[in-house]
Automatic annotation (TrEMBL):
Enzyme class: isomerase
Name the UniProt record assigns to this protein: Methylmalonyl-CoA epimerase
Protein family per UniProt: Belongs to the methylmalonyl-CoA epimerase family.
InterPro entries the record matches: Glyas_Bleomycin-R_OHBP_Dase, MeMalonyl-CoA_epimerase, MMCE/EMCE_epimerase, VOC_core
PROSITE patterns to which the protein is assigned, alphabetical: VOC (PS51819)
Family annotation (SUPFAM superfamilies): Glyoxalase/Bleomycin resistance protein/Dihydroxybiphenyl dioxygenase (SSF54593)
GO molecular function: methylmalonyl-CoA epimerase activity
Domain VOC: 4-132
Domain of life: Bacteria
Signal sequence region: none
Pfam families assigned to the protein according to its UniProt record, in alphabetical order: Glyoxalase_4
Amino acid sequence: MIDKIEHLGIAVKDLKTASKTYEKLLGIKPYKEEKVESEGVTTLFFQTGESKIELLEASNPNSAINKFIEKKGEGIHHIAFAVKDIKAEMERLRSEGFKLLNEEPKKGADNKLICFVHPKDNHGVLIELCQDAE
């Protein structure tokens, strides 16, 4: 079961420039910067209320974020939903006919286990499932 929106992922060309923009917009500083080598990204998180904003900058030219920006430009890349049991939620979504982009949960940023749901199944929106890693 989906608990809440965990974060919005925003693809940006330059993390430093985007960070300054969001610091002014939100009136807060980011709480965490993290490289996720497996995804080819550097992330920066802002906490706003119960939800977060994740800025994503490509750390290599073959990353999904770089390809996204080349195709669509900067902007919202994904919506992440918090779940308590990611494996159960993955199975539920498979049984409902959704295509998952990974077979098993994988390690993501901000100490999360993650799984992506194909955007073609969600009216063009990439969905990420997130569970706190133990």
